[in-house]
């Protein structure tokens, strides 16, 4: 990974962060990219997951998206961060971030269950996106218009592809 997409995402998320982050604590956990074929303004899109600590030492999770212009420059498209709490017994996902950028949607979910191996997200129209869970996070990018993640369901799958838990992404 080049440092530029990661730096763009971190700058975007930190611009909304109310405390001072410890810059030496920012760690990339996972990243995923797709090529945007025929894109006039964007030729590559990415979503990244990272952790960091505030100036008081409190741990946080972050998610963010980036688009690359045909000239090679990277631009942040969205992001979210949340303090890392202890997971409640009924928690499926520890934190969620999603955003749209041009035609398409990006989503990241930090997963609470250690026995989950993959995640499937289904929007209100039945369109699906899946990802393998790595380092406790699932990341997905889908191109095309009309995605509605606000009314979507997520399913956690075990190593045999069986649904072990499901629920609304938001709520």
Write a structural description.
With 171 residues, this protein is mainly β. It has one domain. It is built from one helix and eleven strands; from the N terminus they run αβββββββββββ. A four-stranded antiparallel beta sheet has the order 1-2-3-4. Strands 8-7-10-11 form a four-stranded antiparallel beta sheet, with no helix packed on it. It starts with a helix and ends with a strand. The model has no long low-confidence stretch (mean pLDDT 82).
Share of β-strand residues? over 45%
Order of helices and strands: HEEEEEEEEEEE
Overall shape: it is globular
**Count of individual helical segments:** 1
Largest sheet data: 4 strands, antiparallel
What's the structural domain tally?
1
Any idea what the radius of gyration is? Answer: 16 Å
Low-confidence stretches: none
Strand order, main sheet: write it out. Answer: 1-2-3-4
Distance between the termini: 33 Å
The chain-level mean pLDDT equals 82
Helical fraction equals: under 10%
Content-based structural category: mainly beta
Number of strands: 11
């Amino acid at each position: 990974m080049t440092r530029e997409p990661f730096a763009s995402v971190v700058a975007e998320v930190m611009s909304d962060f109310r405390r001072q982050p410890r810059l030496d604590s920012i760690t990339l956990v996972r990243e995923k990219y797709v090529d945007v074929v025929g894109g006039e303004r964007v030729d590559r899109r990415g979503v990244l997951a990272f952790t960091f600590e505030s100036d008081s030492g409190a741990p946080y999770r972050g998610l963010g998206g980036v688009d690359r212009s045909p000239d090679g420059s990277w631009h942040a498209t969205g992001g979210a961060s949340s303090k890392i709490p202890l997971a409640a017994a009924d928690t499926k996902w520890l934190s969620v971030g999603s955003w749209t950028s041009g035609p398409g949607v990006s989503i990241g979910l930090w997963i609470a269950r250690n026995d989950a191996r993959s995640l499937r997200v289904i929007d209100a129209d039945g369109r699906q996106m899946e990802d393998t869970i790595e380092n406790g996070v699932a990341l997905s990018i889908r191109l095309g218009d009309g995605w509605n993640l606000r009314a979507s369901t997520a399913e956690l799958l075990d190593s045999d592809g069986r649904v072990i838990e499901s629920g609304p992404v938001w709520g």
